[in-house]
Write a structure and sequence with these properties.
11 helices, two-stranded antiparallel ribbon, single chain, globular, mainly alpha
Length: 314
């Protein structure tokens, strides 16, 4: 494993970079950029089709109050702000949910857990980031369900890319002890059992190792992304595609939880994980959304960019 991508330079070229590049952080950056690019592409498509309105961008100001003018451009112009908002709210929410999942450890050393470079719960970040971005979009007058449809496919792929960072770092997001006797002959051993040598937690895993669940999640997320991307031109009402994303994301995660190491707690007589509870809620919400929104959308009044530009600059 390579918890620090910079270590690859030592093995391949024999020299050390002046600063460490952590695998997880690097893959999160790749994931965010990928999701932002895909979402921006979709926002532009919806804008060109007249389904999303443009946004007003100031060309410049003279002093603090005199506006010199404004341009109306596609909503993808907001992706910079949305990305920063997603990162800030996402990391904050992910850390908060991790603390809630590990209150005992937090009570022993709160500062260590708060300021550690590890310990993030994806669903916590997703929830908090979604609330923050929804608030921002409403302020900008954009249709939240339609933007959510644009976000869904990229978000699914970004999740899978982030899991590759977990795999490279060996940050504990792995599976239970693997059973080599149950391995089908067509599956290579490295895809069935992994000991995660040199993992960032400095934990020595007994042979034959554990199921490399981050790889499984990357593969499932990639397949589900392909399905969502192929359906982005669906004829149904706004929010339908994001509902399908919620169903897919919850189903994928609840499957992987069956062979993944995680903290558990008792709920209504059942032993469950936090991720399983959230996954069930996501699946229920996604299924409900599909039922409600699986009607062909009525003819929408096409947004005319020129009209918007005139009304916002007058």
């Amino acid at each position: 494993m390579y918890p620090r991508i910079s270590d690859i330079f030592i093995d391949l070229f024999g020299f050390e970079l002046p600063f460490p590049i952590y695998s997880f952080g690097a893959m999160v950056a790749v994931a965010v950029l990928t999701a932002a690019w895909l979402t921006g592409h979709e926002l532009d498509r919806l804008y060109e089709e007249g389904r999303l309105s443009g946004v007003q961008i100031d060309r410049g100001k003279s002093g603090k109050s005199r506006r010199r003018g404004a341009d109306v451009v596609g909503p993808s112009a907001l992706m910079g702000t949305i990305t920063i908002l997603a990162l800030a709210a996402g990391f904050g929410g992910a850390k908060l949910f991790h603390i809630l999942e590990n209150l005992g450890e937090f009570a022993e050393a709160p500062a260590r857990m708060i300021f550690s470079t590890g310990g993030f719960t994806f669903y916590g970040g997703l929830l908090v980031a979604a609330l923050a971005i929804g608030w921002y979009l409403r302020r900008k007058g954009l249709r939240v369900p339609l933007v959510a449809d644009a976000v869904g496919p990229g978000l699914m792929l970004a999740y899978g890319i982030g899991r590759i960072g977990c795999h490279l770092a060996g940050d504990g997001d792995w599976g239970i002890s693997s059973d080599l006797a149950a391995r089908p002959g067509w599956i290579p051993e490295w895809l069935w059992a992994e000991t995660y040598p040199n993992n960032i937690l400095n934990i020595e895993l007994a042979s034959p190792g554990v199921y490399p669940t981050p790889i499984y999640e990357f593969l499932m997320a990639s397949i589900l992304f392909g399905i969502l991307w192929s359906l982005r031109g669906h004829p149904f009402r706004a929010g339908w595609l994001f509902s399908l994303y919620l169903l897919f994301a919850g189903f994928e995660r609840i499957l992987i939880e069956q062979i993944r190491v995680n903290n558990t707690f008792d709920l209504l007589g059942m032993t469950v994980t936090q991720a399983e509870v959230i996954s069930v809620l996501m699946m229920a919400g996604g299924a409900a959304g599909l039922v409600v929104l699986s009607r062909k959308r009525a003819a929408e009044a096409r947004v005319q960019p020129s009209t918007v530009a005139q009304s916002t600059s007058s």
